[in-house]
Amino acid sequence: MAHVVTSVAEVPAAIQAAGRRPPCRRVLMASPGHFKVESAINPWMRDEQGELNRVDTARAAEQWRALRAAYERIAIRVDVIDAPVGLPDFCFAANQSLALPEAVVLSRMANEERRREVPYFEHWYREHGYRLLLLPDEISRFEGTGDAILHPGLRLIWGGIGPRTEEAVWHFIARETGTDVIALRLSDPRFYHLDTCLCLLDERSALWVPAAFDAASRALIEAAFTRLHAVSEADAANFACNAHCPDARHVLIQQGSSKTVAWLQQAGFVPLELDTGEFMKSGGSVFCLKQELP
Ligand code: ARG
């Protein structure tokens, strides 16, 4: 029976028992048409003076197009869902759902500001023939792949518990999809989603921000990955862990994280540096801007 793993002793068995998962071949991106910073729902959305960050809409559109083109260059198909008016965070397509091979789990956004995004994704999935899994009413917080990272090559989920996602959802998802979940507790408000402090590269390699986790969670990560790179403070603040490695080789990453990029190269990965600066003003980078589709 699939379950939620919380102890180091269970990690090797969960890895062993997990079935194989093919590499990512297709992603869903949400157009940045109405992207803005309208209110601060995470610590990155204000400048030093405490003012809301100002987004340059034209630059954001350009950066988004470059990300899309980067996926297409490495042979990943990109589907696009159009942004409705009045939903400034809609472009962060990682958060409204978690698309698993068994079913798509729709999110329950922690902030009122983002709740209206989910029905648009629901509609898109229905139109495209996906099976949906609806959360029970008791679950009040779940933000999709912001807090759910799929283990490369395996049918195994790393699940964040923090400001945006509550623990109970992992028991539900493990039970309903038959997928083990290794649960990690986030402990630093700057790293409010798991995808801001953990980036899985291949079956045994990952980038992470150790200080963003409690001690028990750090031990779980250390038990699973033999090649772990703790990113520098500067790279962590530059969203280095919000990179995306869809194929265990190419790593799409915010430009300027020089130490992380050097580590990736010596470890045999191919970093593809991109500018997501406008989206970082809202607390997100590469990983947040897409949903992997099975
Ligand atoms: N402003 C958005 C929010 O706070 C950014 C989401 C970034 N997404 C992510 N997966 N980290 O909800």
Q: Would you write up a description of this structure?
A:
The protein is an alpha/beta fold and 294 residues long. It has a single domain (4-292), classed as L-arginine/glycine Amidinotransferase, Chain A (5-stranded Propeller), CATH 3.75.10. It contains nine helices and 15 strands. It has helices at residues 11-17, 57-73, 112-115, 118-127, 168-177, 215-224, 233-237, 258-266, 277-280; strands at 4-5, 26-30, 77-81, 97-99, 104-106, 132-133, 148-150, 156-161, 180-185, 198-202, 205-208, 227-230, 250-254, 270-274, 291-292. The strands form five sheets. A four-stranded mixed beta sheet has the order 1-9-8-7. Strands 3-2-15 form a three-stranded mixed beta sheet, with helices on one face. Strand 8 (156-161), helix 5 (168-177) and strand 9 (180-185) form a beta-alpha-beta unit. The mean pLDDT is 97. The chain binds arginine (ARG). Arginine binds at residues 41-42, 89, 92, 94-95, 114, 146, 193, 195-196, 282-284, 288.
Short description:
With 294 residues, this protein is of the alpha/beta class. 26% of the residues lie in helices and 20% in strands.
Are there runs of 5+ residues with pLDDT below 50, and where?
Answer: none
Mean pLDDT: 97
Structural class: alpha/beta
Give the overall shape, derived from the CA principal axes.
Answer: globular
Tally of helical runs: 9
Share of helical residues: 25-40%
Which sequence of SSEs, written as H and E, runs from N to C? EHEHEEEHHEEEHEEEHEHEHEHE
Radius of gyration: 17 Å
Describe the main β-sheet briefly.
Answer: 4 strands, mixed
- CATH top level class name: Alpha Beta
| Strand order in space, largest sheet | 1-9-8-7
| Bound small molecules, deduplicated | arginine
Q: What is the CATH H-level superfamily?
A: L-arginine/glycine Amidinotransferase, Chain A
CATH architecture: 5-stranded Propeller
